[in-house]
Amino acid sequence: MSFLLTDERIADDNQCRRAALDDDYAHLGQQLARRGIAIEMVTDLAMAFRVAVPSWALATGGTRFGRFPAPGEPQTIFEKLEDCEAVFRLVRVTPGVSLHIPWDRPERPAELKALAAAGGLFIDSTNSNTFQDQPGQRHSYKFGSLSHTDRAVRDQAVEHNLECLEIGAALGASAHTVWIGDGANFPGQMHIRRAVDRYLESMRTIYAALPGGCRLLLEHKLYEPAFYATVVADWCTSYCCARELGDRAYALVDLGHHAPTVNVEQVVAQLIRLGKLGGFHFNDSKYGDDDLDAGSIKPFELFLIFNELVDARLEPVAGFEPAYMLDQSHNVTDPIESLMISATELVRAYVQAHLVDREALGQYQDANDAMMALQTLKQAFTCDVSPVLAMARLRAGGAIDPIATYRATRYRESKRRERPLAASARPAFL
Ligand code: RM4
Ligand code: MN
Ligand code: MN
């Protein structure tokens, strides 16, 4: 019998934190009331927030220099779902799971769907992988996939995406994300215009096969693995391609995929204005990386992104329904802990963005009062909404302090006994 984080275990551990939370919540409620904000409304927002967890983030990540597998990490998609359930039970905002195929290809989709549902989860989206060769594959992606110069390679990559759509339909996924590593490492290696033409031709076939209710999300990335020129390198290329494809194609913004000085909240606002913001891969980065925990490096940027999202939601901008997903890799932390904290940081930014006095902000903007406009945003950003987040989790059956409860249950130690490391993942000294 595998170890489960039951509601009772969580409730028991919440006991010792309940009184302090009630105090802090009442105090914050008074502060917000003075500003005309009802704390209960804010707590309801925190409870309704949703972000999907990436199946590929549950196992320990690595870099091209190595990977250090952790005892008790999941190896199959079923074990990964078990860990997704643990994340969900503790924070209660992550019922959706985003699947990477073929890394987490379900042999029997119906079984996976049922298992997810039994744990209160569902499969939110699929992601294709044509940036790596798989064993037994006919053609190599060394020089590209959907934009390859050779039609046979392009066809194989299209075929893989069609298979993802089929799996997604069986699982009830509402989006399919395509990110390709295609590009060039040297000037002259690739005909820049024709590569985009070939990419679009392939994407048209994929678009035409979209199951009803499923959206196609185009993910761009500045560089890596192509280090000179990437085929879909920026949000503008992504937007143009999505527009050419049709109404059900959108641009997806991965927070770590921009040049270091790009104003990401401005990118978000532009895409909203153009009606093509399809979703997010949330994470954080310091240099050229794209896999650190959301909110760990640039929390103010995260807040400013949510400020744009909430502004559009409140307006409301017609047809505005971006999909929220995390896309991270955890090399030195327990993935369950990182995902819980990252999800919490997103709820924090979402809730704080609702505290912005938008009427005042509009007036300061009209009056060109830069100082007070900034202060209006800062007032929301500096408000510590932790008691709201904790109360929202508690009311939904989750943990007041997710990491403390997770550690107290010794979940990972139980999984260590249940899941012996596969020989391939085991370092030589174990
Ligand atoms: C890429 C990109 C994709 C993700 C892969 C693993 O950098 O972010 O979304 O699927 O990494
Ligand atoms: Mn991504
Ligand atoms: Mn990435």
Give a description of the structure.
With 430 residues, the protein is an alpha/beta fold. The chain has helices at 7-34, 39-48, 77-91, 109-118, 151-171, 192-208, 235-245, 264-273, 299-314, 335-354, 358-366, 370-381, 386-395, 402-409, 411-418, and strands at 53-54, 62-63, 66-67, 96-101, 122-128, 175-178, 183-184, 215-219, 229-230, 249-254, 277-282, 323-326. The protein has an eight-stranded parallel beta sheet. Helix 1 (7-34) packs across helix 13. It is globular, with a radius of gyration of 22 Å. Residues 426-430 have low confidence and may be disordered. The structure holds beta-L-rhamnopyranose (RM4) and manganese (II) ion (MN) (2 copies). Beta-L-rhamnopyranose binds at residues 100, 127, 179, 219, 221, 254, 281, 290, 327.
- N-end to C-end Cα span: 26 Å
Report the C-alpha radius of gyration, rounded: 22 Å
Number of helices: 15
Task: Outline the low-pLDDT stretches.
Answer: 426-430
> Which of globular, elongated, flat, extended, rod-shaped describes the shape?
globular
Small molecules (ligands, ions, cofactors) in the structure: beta-L-rhamnopyranose, manganese (II) ion
Helix content: 40-55%
Beta strand count: 12
In sequence order, what are the helices and strands, one letter per element? HHEEEHEHEHEEHEEHEHEHEHHHHHH
Task: Provide mean pLDDT, rounded.
Answer: 96
Please describe the biggest sheet, giving its number of strands, its sense, and whether it closes into a barrel.
8 strands, parallel
Which structural class do the helices and strands define? alpha/beta
Share of residues in strands? 5-15%
Strand order of the largest sheet: 1-4-5-6-8-10-11-12
